[in-house]
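Researcher: Let's do a round of design. I'm pasting the structure tokens now; please hold your answer until I've finished.
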């Protein structure tokens, strides 16, 4: 009854409906085709839906999509999960290039992405993402902007944005420019975010099994400053450009495994603070009409990333002032470069797309300081892939094959190890357009993933997770053998999209508890076992067109079940999710509301506890005002967690200590001229 009341309340409040994102007819940057031409499951979130709504982390901005969830570690950190797969099984891309940070080394590490002034976000679910060159067994999330333009801009476009939120007393300011000056395309964008600690419902925070009456999640603040600059020139022979990007973050880590050591000490407080800094240089271009080739695309990218986690003690003096003292910082670094090349073969517009890709990368990851639980690791990676798309009379075929060579040099203790893996991955998707507006898609894939640095060489105390973790150099590559079947139907305003998949993962890597404790923390090992991930996503809805605008109502549901072949549940599997979405889109006004019902998760793994369900109600209202002939003011009003639910993320390592944020309202102004 309670959930039904939420449904009726939301429907009556706006009386509006809106389409799901996968219905937007736009072009995917991943393959250059429109969504109507893509057979594999893909979502595209438009830039307006990102740029004109409330600022949040990457995971929270996409977790309403079916098959997609987020593993949180406070409001600033939200690592995406796709169909039960997380960590390095999901690749985060920026304009098709892998984002190289240290998010895979800790659940409290954020993804180093700049979500300011975006063109779109693309999400591909499952191993079929291999068909987009950089795909992997979980899926990919590609963040697309126009920092390096491959088409000439017309005129000059400026944007100034201002934002305010209530739950964190947060303020955001942004600026962006796109234009063509003397035949050179120029872009520049910056964004500054300042969020204080987030409010949470009373009793939502649980420490050692007991709820607390606190209404503010301490150390959940976030400050971000990002900027990016690019230029490009477009000629008859193709284009060439480069970009510079820099992102700095400072945020509090809302819970840390070492906090228990200071309980009962009133003379000082301890704050765990993370400071990140990244600099990225990208050179990119393409040459067309070469002998035997339709186009040759290439890029070179160098990245320098650091993440420093420090303990700051706040000493209270007699005058009431606070004196900060920082000690024992730990720094995670990732220095990398990557070169990539794609050769388009044949007529890419004639339904017979073929390309060959080559990627070479070097990545050096190190941890320095008191909590250095892993020795430095040097990785070299080579990938060679072949991809083809054929549009036949009866069926559309997409096929990809990729060979990955991964070498990692690291150490456990004083013993050096040189780990080498060679993996062949393949994916085939077949699509049929039947009569009566029915489309069918069958995907078959076998995709491998080499063990990550932390899974191989972890050897010490991981305080963020409050345990002692130990990797193994004997781990083998995981292999996902996936079967995916989808059906779509659209007629007279009604639409249905449904997918069912079976994903058998050989040598699935997971954390297993030894059953022993050292220094008050459990000892765990990275182990392997065969596992099965079976699930589905289904969405039904109807669209209407009236004098008041375009209305759409939709209902979606997803579920994934993860079990080990020998018995037992895979830990931290995402719970069942129901999504109700409605909106009205008029010429200058958009109303959008989402009701996300997360069910109780009681299919738990060893050592886990069940997680109660919750219902999240969000809304967005956006209106544009024309000012003069070329100027526009866009006013956005949004609300999150309207019912102030006590919500916690089952996939989070700190779900009890770090619940989701409480009720939040915000307003955002964007001035385009």
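Researcher: That's everything. Go ahead.
Model: Designed sequence:
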């Amino acid at each position: 009854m309670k959930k039904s009341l939420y449904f009726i309340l939301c429907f009556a409040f706006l009386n509006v409906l809106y389409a799901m994102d996968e219905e937007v007819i736009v072009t995917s940057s991943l393959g250059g085709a429109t969504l109507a031409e893509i057979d594999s499951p893909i979502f595209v979130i438009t830039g307006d839906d990102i740029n004109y709504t409330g600022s949040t982390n990457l995971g929270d901005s996409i977790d309403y999509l079916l098959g997609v969830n987020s593993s949180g570690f406070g409001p600033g950190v939200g690592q995406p999960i796709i169909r039960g797969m997380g960590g390095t099984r999901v690749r985060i891309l920026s304009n098709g290039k892998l984002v190289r940070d240290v998010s895979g080394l800790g659940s409290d590490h954020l993804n180093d992405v700049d979500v300011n002034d975006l063109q779109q976000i693309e999400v591909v679910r499952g191993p079929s993402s291999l068909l987009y060159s950089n795909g992997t067994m979980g899926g990919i999330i590609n963040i697309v902007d126009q920092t390096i333009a491959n088409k000439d801009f017309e005129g000059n476009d400026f944007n100034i944005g201002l934002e305010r939120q209530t739950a964190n007393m947060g303020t955001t300011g942004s600026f962006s420019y796109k234009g063509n000056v003397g035949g050179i395309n120029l872009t520049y964008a910056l964004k500054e975010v300042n969020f204080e600690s987030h409010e949470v419902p009373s009793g939502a925070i649980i420490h050692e099994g007991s709820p607390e009456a606190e209404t503010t999640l301490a150390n959940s603040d976030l400050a971000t400053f990002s900027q990016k600059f690019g230029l490009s020139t477009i000629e008859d022979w193709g284009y060439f450009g480069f970009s510079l990007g820099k992102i700095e973050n400072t945020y509090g880590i809302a819970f840390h495994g070492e906090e228990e050591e200071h309980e009962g000490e009133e003379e000082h407080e301890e704050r765990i603070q993370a400071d990140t800094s990244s600099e990225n240089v990208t050179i990119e271009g393409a040459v067309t009409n070469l002998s035997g080739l339709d186009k040759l695309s290439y890029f070179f990218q160098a990245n320098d990333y650091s993440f420093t986690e420090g303990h700051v003690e706040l000493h209270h003096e007699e005058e009431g002032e606070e004196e900060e003292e920082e000690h024992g910082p730990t720094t995670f670094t990732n220095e990398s470069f990557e070169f990539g090349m794609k050769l388009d073969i044949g007529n890419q517009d004639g339904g017979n797309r073929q390309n060959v890709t080559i990627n070479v990368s070097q990545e050096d990851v190190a941890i320095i300081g008191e909590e250095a639980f892993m020795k430095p690791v040097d990785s070299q990676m080579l990938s060679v892939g072949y991809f083809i798309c054929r549009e036949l009379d009866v069926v559309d075929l997409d096929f990809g094959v990729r060979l990955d060579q991964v070498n990692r040099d690291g150490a456990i203790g004083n013993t050096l190890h040189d780990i080498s893996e060679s993996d062949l991955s393949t994916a085939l998707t077949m699509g049929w357009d039947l009569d009566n507006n029915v489309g069918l898609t069958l995907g078959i894939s076998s995709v491998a993933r080499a063990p990550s640095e932390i899974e191989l060489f972890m050897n010490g105390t991981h305080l963020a997770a409050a345990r002692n973790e130990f990797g193994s150099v004997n781990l083998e590559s995981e292999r996902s053998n996936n079967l995916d079947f989808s059906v779509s139907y659209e007629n007279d305003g009604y639409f249905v999209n449904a997918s069912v998949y079976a994903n058998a993962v050989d040598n699935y890597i997971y954390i297993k508890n030894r059953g022993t404790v050292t220094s008050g923390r459990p000892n765990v090992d990275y182990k392997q076992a065969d596992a099965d991930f079976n699930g589905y996503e289904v969405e039904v809805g109807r669209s209407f067109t009236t004098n008041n605008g375009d209305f759409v109502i939709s209902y979606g549901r997803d579920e994934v079940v993860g079990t080990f072949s020998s018995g037992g549940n895979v830990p931290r599997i995402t719970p069942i999710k129901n999504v109700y979405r409605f909106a009205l889109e008029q010429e200058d006004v958009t109303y959008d509301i989402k009701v996300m019902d997360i069910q109780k998760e009681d299919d738990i793994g060893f050592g886990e506890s069940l997680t109660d369900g919750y219902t999240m109600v969000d809304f967005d209202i956006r209106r544009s005002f024309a000012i003069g002939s070329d100027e526009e003011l866009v006013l956005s009003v949004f609300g999150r967690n309207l019912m102030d639910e006590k919500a916690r993320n089952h996939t989070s390592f700190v779900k009890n200590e770090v619940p989701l944020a409480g009720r939040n309202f915000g307003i955002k102004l964007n001035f385009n001229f």
